[in-house]
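Hi F.,

I've been meaning to write this up properly since the lab meeting, where we talked about keeping a consistent format for the predictions we share between groups. The idea is simple: the sequence comes first, exactly as it goes in, then the structure tokens exactly as they come out, then a line or two of notes. No screenshots and no reformatting. I'm using this chain as the first example so we have something concrete to point to.
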Amino acid sequence: MTARNTKSGYDVLKDEVLNKSSAFSREERDDLGLRGLLPYSVNTQNNQVKRVLANMRRKETDIEKYIFLMALQMRAEKLFYRLVTENFDEIMPIIYTPTVGQACKEFAHIFRMPKGFYITPEDKGQIDKILDNWPDKNVEVIVVTDGSRILGLGDLGSNGMGIPIGKLALYTACAGIDPQHCMPVMFDIGTNNEEILNDPLYLGYPQQRLHGDAYFELMDEFISAVKQKYPGVLVQFEDFQTENAYKLLDIYRDRILSFNDDIQGTAAVSLAGVYASTRISGVDFKDLRIMFLGAGSAATGIGDLIASALVEEGLSQEEAMLRLWFLDRGGLVVKSRKNLASHKQPFAHEHDSMDLMESIADIKPHVLIGATGTPGTFTQEVIELMCKLNERPTIFALSNPTSRAECTAEQAYTWSNGKVLFASGSPFPEFTWNKQRFVPGQGNNAYIFPGVGLGAVACKASIITDDIFLTAAKTLAHMVTDEHLATATLYPPMQNIREVSLDIAVQVAEKFYEQGVAQEPRPSDLREFIASKMYDSNY
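Output, unedited:
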């Protein structure tokens, strides 16, 4: 090992990239000036993982475990990622959903050390200059949020920084993007959450949200600066309010390598689950009728991608759209409704306005997808009606965190006598009903965005089209085995996420080459080439 510069031994121990703590060998201790600074024994990384895992498990609450793990990430990067990759099932719910929701709500109160990059309205005209303060000059992936719609929790202002930090941890853990080439960004342009503004510990820009032209001018300055400073960088937009989410995607999708995870990532993971569900329900994908409760960016993004998938199956665009029905706070989205947001208008049909129960009874959907952020909206009556209409109905309760889910896995299985094919945005435990074991699948975007990002960065793609997410969805669905389906599981095990991400990266890279947008010369063995770029967390 060589230090990144002429650091002293003490500095090496404070450098999260170099630090191996008690695992430094005798030779390394001599070479790096570490003798006397460490206990005598030389540990293996395996022993370190066991120690850290035991200490984490001593913590009584998930938020305490989250704080513990974030501290580990800041002091010993490779150990952190080795721990995560070997214990995905246990640690994913802590470093991301559902615990990250609580971490964001409490971000200012649990703040320890700065991580990430912050942009405020006071930085206008200087973004290019202040980007020079970022230590890594080879940024490959940026996740940016403005904190306006964090999970199902709403406007959390700069407390939403926990989301880009968490997403980029998943980029590394799931797909092997080097953490030193990842940049979490908080576009901190204020908050309209009065409770947060009145919090004396709040760390963000303490004003009402910037909006209109001033908002988009500041974002444009940021995008222009990172495009020039980090050529080929991938920008992932995350947890923006629906209207701005669509506007930003429309503005930048052709100007910089970018996508919106809430619109496109959620769509791909949901489509994959729907594909898998048809192998149990026996209903051909092209014959499905699908109803959405919620019509925000996540729901309509899913609708757009499913429509594309239906067209690929041979339906016309008009026929595909007629298979997709949406409800929002005003009831069924129909053409007679006035002042419908632009992203809802393509899904508005000639039909009478109805509430949820009336709509289910009339339209008879095979699949019901919840993306409301409102807990408990899939009631027992809703589940029972879906079962009356379908032998094996599909129910997706996608809202995050767990406290916002439209229903729990236990409720879905119990109220349906085990008939429902269930998936959720947050994890739920296994459940047994009448001696049958159910393993509820988690429709987590972590199945999609890391692999898409890895494929895009590896082949130096210049643009990400919706076809890429269709490819990712098909790849993920094909990884669901008959063994998984036997427990009504619609996704592969989270523990296999690195294999999933690599498969998706290879398939989307093939698509990039087919589209002619990959700037990296095509290697003879694409899988081996991409795998060689994945970060290794072993010492």
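Notes:
The mean pLDDT is 96.
The longest helix spans residues 261-281.

If this format works for you, I'll send the rest the same way.

G.
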